Amino acid sequence: MQTTKAACEASPTTSVAEWKELVARFQQPSTGRAVRQLLNTLLPYGALWYAMYLCASYSLWLALPLAVVAGAFLVRIFIIFHDCGHGSFLKSRGANAVVGFISGLLTFTPYFHWRWEHSLHHASSGDLDRRGSGDIWTLTVEEYLASSRLKRLAYRLARNPLILFVFGPLYLFLVQHRIPSRRANLRDRLSVWWMNLALLCWIWGMGSLFGLGTFLVLQLSVILVAGAAGVWLFYVQHQFDGVYWERGEEWDFTAAALQGSSYYKLPRILQWFSGNIGFHHIHHLSPRIANYNLERCHNSHPLFSNVKAVTLLGSLKSMTYRLWDEQRRELVGYRRLREIRRGLGC
Predict the structure, then answer these.
(1) What is the 3-state secondary structure (H, E, C) of the chain?
(2) Do residues 4 and 255 make contact, with C-beta atoms less than 8 angstroms apart?
(3) What's the whole-model pTM score?
C-alpha cells in the first residue's frame, strides 16, 4: 500500500494550502523545550565522558561499554545539530548557529557546510533526476545494467552493509567532513576549516587529559556507534517498501515528503535517543518543525497519523533493497536483477 494513498484516503479533501496551515502552529520553536533537551542530552553526555575517564584510569575495557551509551547520546546531539541547521531548534538565528557549532564539534561536522549540503537533500529527495546530494547512492536497474564492471563493483561495495554502516560512517565523519566542496560558497568552505581547527584543539585537550591513544580509541568507538545508528536511520527513512521516486516534472513535493520519507515507528527509548527523527515524513513536509514538536504534529491530523508505519522488525527488510526498478516502481534486490538479466538473455 502506498503511503500517500493512505494519507489521501484518511483526508481526501486536504489541499497543499490546508496541510501548510496544519503544520504552521508546530513550526514555532520553544525555548523551554530546547533548553530542556540541551540539558537532558549534553549533561549526561558529559557525565559519560567523565565516567569513561575514571574507568580508563583502571582499564580501557571498563570504559568501552560506556562509549556505546555515549554513542547513543551522540545521535541525539546530532539531531539537535540537525534542527539548528534548519533554524527550527531555537528562535534566534544566532543562537541556532552557536548551538549548531558546539554540537557540530561534538559530532565532527562543520555547521554551515553541512547545512548547505543538507538543504540540497531536502530540495531533491525522491527526484530521480536530482540524485546525489546528501543521499544514499541508488541506481536504477537500467543504470546498473548499463554500467561498467568497475562501477558495478563499486556500487555493490557501497551497498554492502559492512561498508554502508561501519566503514562508511567513519569515512563520512572523519574524512569527508574535513574537506569542503568546491561548489560551496566561501562562508561554508571556511566553516570546514574552522571546525578542523576546533577539532585539533579538542583532540589536543582531551588527549592531554586521557592520554592521546586512550582518547582516540574511546572517541572512535563513540563515533562508530553514533555513525552506524545515524546512517541506518537515514537509510531506513528513504529506502523502504512503497517509497516514492519520480522523474522531472512528475516529481511532487508533498508526495515526496509523505511517501518518500518513512514514518519509522520505534520503541520509546529508541525514539528518545533518535530525537523523534522517525517522524521523517513530517520533517520533510516541514523542516521548520523542531524534533520536539514532530510527534505532536504527527498526532494532530489523520493526514499525518494514518501514514503507514515502518516497524523496527519490518525495517530489516530494507537491507535487501539494492536498486530502483522503474518498471515496477519499487526498490528491488539483486534477485530481481538476475531475473531481468535472464529475461534479456545476458
Answers:
(1) CCHHHHHHHHCCCCCHHHHHHHHHCCCCCCHHHHHHHHHHHHHHHHHHHHHHHHHHCCCHHHHHHHHHHHHHHHHHHHHHHHHHHCCCCCCCHHHHHHHHHHHHHHCCCCHHHHHHHHHHHHHHCCEHHHCCCCCCCCEEHHHHHCCCHHHHHHHHHHCCHHHHHHHHHHHHHHCHHHCCCCCCCHHHHHHHHHHHHHHHHHHHHHHHHHCHHHHHHHHHHHHHHHHHHHHHHHHHHHCCCCCCCECHHHCCHHHHHHCCCCEEECCHHHHHHCCCCCEHHHHHHCCCCCHHHHHHHHCCCHHHHCCCEEECCHHHHHHHCCEEECCCCEEECHHHHHHHHHHHCC
(2) yes
(3) 0.91
Asked if pLDDT for residue 253 goes beyond 90, the answer is: no
Q: What is the pLDDT of residues 122-151, one digit of tens each?
A: 999 999 999 878 889 999 999 999 999 999
The cell numbers describing 166, all together, are: 561501519
The residue type found at 111 is Y
Given a contact cutoff of 8 angstroms between Cβ atoms, the answer to whether 99 and 257 are in contact is no
Q: What's the burial of 245, exposed, middle or buried (CB within 10 Å: 0-12/13-18/19+)?
A: buried
Burial class (CB in 10 A: 0-12, 13-18, 19+), 38: middle
Q: 14-23, 47-56, 216-225, 327-336 — which is least confidently predicted?
A: 14-23
**pLDDT score for 302:** 82
Which residues fall within 8 angstroms of residue 160, CB to CB, at 6 or more apart? none
- Choose among 94, 116, 112: nearest CA to 190: 112
| pLDDT tens digits, 74-123 | 999 999 999 999 999 999 999 999 999 999 999 999 999 999 999 999 99
The Cβ of residue 238 has, within 10 Å, a number of other Cβ atoms equal to 22
Q: How many CA atoms lie within 13 A of 293 on its CB side?
A: 24
- Please report the pLDDT score of residue 1 as a whole number: 36
For cell 540524485, what's the residue?
131
